[in-house]
Amino acid sequence: MSDELMTIRQMCDAFDVTPRTLRFYEARELIFPQRRGQHRLYDRRDRARLTLILRGKRFGFSLEQIRQLLELYAPGSTNRTQIAATIQVGRERLADMEQQYAELSEAIADLRQQLSDAQIRLAAASHEQPTG
């Protein structure tokens, strides 16, 4: 994307978000659009921050974690601190996701077995003669 400013509608279209989402992130001081009267205008920095916010949310980071990582960014530097913090938070989140995945995989296998057992019982019950 270029250095040009974007309106809230252009941002919504470009990032597939709602105006409410953008206003929410602005209220949480994660993005800082320029204000011209009633209009919000988003620059390249806002677009980059929104990209990172949406990626962080997709990975399950809290807004506070995202804010802390964004605050570590220093224009014109190597951003070693930000990168190191992102790696640490990312590793922690990955470990949580892998644990959730293992638990979910176990629950899926158990449910499949329960359904299979129920199918067998149903089939057996349908072959039994009613007593009367």
* Count of domain modules: 2
Question: How far apart, in Å, are the first and last alpha carbons?
Answer: 78 Å
Uncertain stretches of 5 or more adjacent residues = none
How would you state the average pLDDT, rounded? 93
Q: From N to C, what is the helix and strand string? A: EHHEEHHH
Q: Main β-sheet, in a few words?
A: 3 strands, antiparallel
CATH top level class name of the largest domain? Mainly Alpha
CATH topology-level name of the largest domain = Multidrug-efflux Transporter Regulator, Chain: A, Domain 2
Quote the beta fraction.
5-15%
CATH architecture assignment name of the largest domain? Orthogonal Bundle
Number of strands: 3
The 3D shape can be described as: elongated
Radius of gyration: 25 Å
Q: What is the SS-derived class? A: mainly alpha
Fraction of residues in helix: 55-70%
- Number of helices, counting only DSSP H or I runs of 4 residues or more: 5
Strand order of the largest sheet: 1-3-2
Question: What does the model show?
Answer:
It is a single chain. With 132 residues, this protein is mainly α. It folds into 2 domains: 1-71, Multidrug-efflux Transporter Regulator, Chain: A, Domain 2 (Orthogonal Bundle), CATH 1.10.1660.10; 80-126. The protein contains 5 helices and 3 strands. Strands 1-3-2 form a 3-stranded antiparallel beta sheet. Helix 3 (44-58) packs across helix 4 and helix 4 packs antiparallel against helix 5 (80-127). The mean pLDDT is 93.
